[in-house]
Q: What sequence folds into this?
């Protein structure tokens, strides 16, 4: 598969602080990537470096297998970083026209892109009159003007109200469904979980994990079980080698699997043993739990 | 190149303040013509400025370029703010992300500055030509085209000064502070000059020779003040037993000094932009 962006041992130091440390990963065409990490973990710095606005300290990165210079590569990229930056005295359409000139693309797509983000009726309003949500949507329209190979979004829903967040996520999903590669930096786990197929997790500038979201933890999930005979149930679980451990909380037993086991066969086995369940749920760890596990493991 | 000019033009076109100040600037240049209508009574003699030879060819080239260069301060405001605004609106970052290289960014600004200087020079040339043809005592072609180096000097002066403004805008990042810095720089140059002239090298020409290499002073030197060249001022001075021995010409080395500063300022602007994290 075609590589869109490759990072090799990228490092950035701000004085004594190392914001990004030896970071390497590859973005391949067609996937939706999330960069996940708490605030100040180096997400925006990493994006800043590959977008030519922050100077790297060491290491290197290449766009499109290194076939083109960074600023020419950026003409094939759509990116918004942190907050939307436009000329406040220009209207939405005028701002987008300027972006077209910079990206060297014809300006006939302006209306089409404004339509996608639902700003067509405000195209002649000055940028400074826009609400934050509208500014963010205009930024997305601007990033889409060149029909980019990859769309880079840095905290696109930061500071928006629930309705705004919803609108932005719908737009992202729509774009992703059209096959555009997306790189989404966020500290919101459910955002990444809902949208991304791949994830890079960084903390304090160090990469903790990169790969598919569903392969992040080689775990088989866990069962939540309730029964009127909890003590018998626990005894059975401790003898059974499909389970590595279990814990009881408020009469609910959580049992962690070591092998693949589906709910139906577990239920049948237990029933045959004479244990009747009142509650059975099979779950996988959420991204949040996996994320916390990953970050805690390294402490 | 046209693309870069277009980009910058698009940015300036919708900026009301920049438009108003630029228009004011050109209107001010045409107001030089108003000097022609100044009349006053001096000891019972009716005195008309236009009749004192200030609009005579080739003197008018010197006089008008000198007067017009004062109004460059208006364009300085536009240039400083067009640089500093890119920082305060954080649009510089967006421009770079959108695929403008740092070199292209500086180039688009400097090209615009060059266009400003070129238009100003052409405009001044036409205004002076019209004024001269209307008021000059000599209208022979050979006289009209003599001393045209003042027009070239005016162009170089604008380019140098605007490059300095560009650099200040990038360096200070805030328009008001950058203009303040420009003023402070002017004061510093004058203080240094005074120190050299009246303390260190008293009674010699060494101070002037050092100061001519300072950025603002070198731009000033390109076009010397034209007033003491006027006939009626000279005759007045003669009556007081004083005479002016001054070199009014535009020298090649003065042009070279300003051009060197222009290159330095452009280079510094580019390096600063390259080094900074946004």
A:
């Amino acid at each position: 598969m075609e590589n869109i962006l490759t990072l090799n041992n990228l490092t950035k130091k701000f004085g004594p602080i190392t914001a990004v440390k030896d970071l390497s990963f590859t973005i391949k065409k067609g996937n939706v990537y999330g960069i996940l990490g708490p605030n100040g973990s180096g997400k925006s710095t990493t994006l800043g470096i590959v977008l030519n606005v922050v100077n790297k300290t060491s290491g290197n990165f290449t766009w499109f297998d290194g076939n083109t210079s960074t600023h020419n590569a950026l003409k094939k990229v759509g990116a918004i970083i942190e907050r939307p930056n436009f000329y406040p005295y220009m209207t939405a359409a005028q701002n987008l026209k300027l972006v077209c000139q910079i990206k060297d693309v014809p300006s006939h797509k302006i209306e089409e892109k404004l339509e996608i983000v639902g700003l067509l009726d405000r195209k002649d309003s000055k940028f400074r009159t826009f609400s934050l949500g509208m500014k963010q949507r205009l930024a997305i329209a601007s990033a889409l003007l060149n029909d980019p190979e990859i769309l880079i979004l840095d905290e696109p829903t930061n500071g928006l109200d629930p309705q705004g967040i919803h609108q932005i996520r719908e737009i992202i999903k729509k774009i992703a469904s059209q096959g555009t590669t997306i790189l989404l930096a966020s500290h919101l786990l459910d955002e990444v979980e809902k949208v991304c197929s791949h994830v890079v997790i960084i903390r304090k500038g160090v990469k903790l994990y990169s790969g598919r979201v569903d392969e992040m933890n080689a775990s088989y999930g866990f069962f939540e079980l309730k029964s009127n005979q909890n003590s018998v149930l626990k005894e059975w679980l401790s003898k059974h080698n499909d389970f590595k451990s279990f814990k009881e909380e408020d009469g609910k037993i959580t049992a962690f699997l070591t092998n693949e086991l589906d709910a139906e066969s577990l239920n049948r086995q237990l029933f045959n043993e004479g244990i009747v369940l009142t509650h059975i749920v099979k779950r996988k760890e959420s991204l949040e739990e996996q994320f916390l596990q990953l970050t805690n493991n390294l402490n | 190149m046209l693309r870069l000019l277009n980009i910058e033009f698009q940015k300036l076109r919708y900026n009301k303040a920049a438009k108003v100040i630029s228009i004011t600037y050109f209107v001010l240049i045409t107001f030089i013509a108003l000097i022609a209508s100044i009349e006053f009574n001096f000891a019972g003699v009716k005195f008309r400025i236009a009749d004192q030879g200030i609009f005579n060819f080739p003197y008018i080239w010197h006089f008008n370029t000198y007067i017009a260069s004062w109004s460059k301060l208006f364009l300085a405001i536009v240039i400083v703010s067009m640089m500093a605004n890119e920082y305060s609106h954080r649009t510089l970052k967006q421009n770079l992300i959108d695929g403008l290289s740092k070199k292209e960014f500086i180039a688009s600004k400097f090209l615009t500055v060059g266009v400003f200087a070129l238009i100003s020079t052409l405009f001044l040339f036409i205004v002076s030509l019209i004024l001269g043809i209307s008021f000059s005592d000599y209208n022979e072609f050979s006289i009209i085209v003599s001393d045209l180096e003042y027009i070239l000097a005016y162009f170089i002066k604008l380019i140098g000064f605007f490059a300095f403004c560009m650099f200040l805008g990038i360096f200070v990042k805030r328009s008001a502070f950058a203009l303040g810095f420009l003023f402070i720089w002017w004061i510093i140059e004058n203080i240094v000059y005074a120190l050299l002239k009246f303390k260190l090298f008293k009674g010699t020409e060494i101070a002037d020779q050092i100061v001519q290499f300072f950025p603002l002073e070198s731009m000033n030197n390109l076009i010397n003040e034209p007033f003491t060249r006027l006939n009626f001022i000279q005759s007045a001075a003669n009556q007081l037993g004083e005479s002016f021995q001054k070199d009014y010409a535009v020298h090649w080395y003065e042009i070279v000094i300003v051009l060197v500063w222009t290159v330095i300022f452009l280079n510094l602007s580019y390096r600063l932009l390259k080094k900074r994290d946004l």
About this structure: Chain B has one domain: 2-275. Strands of chain B lie at 39-42, 45-48.
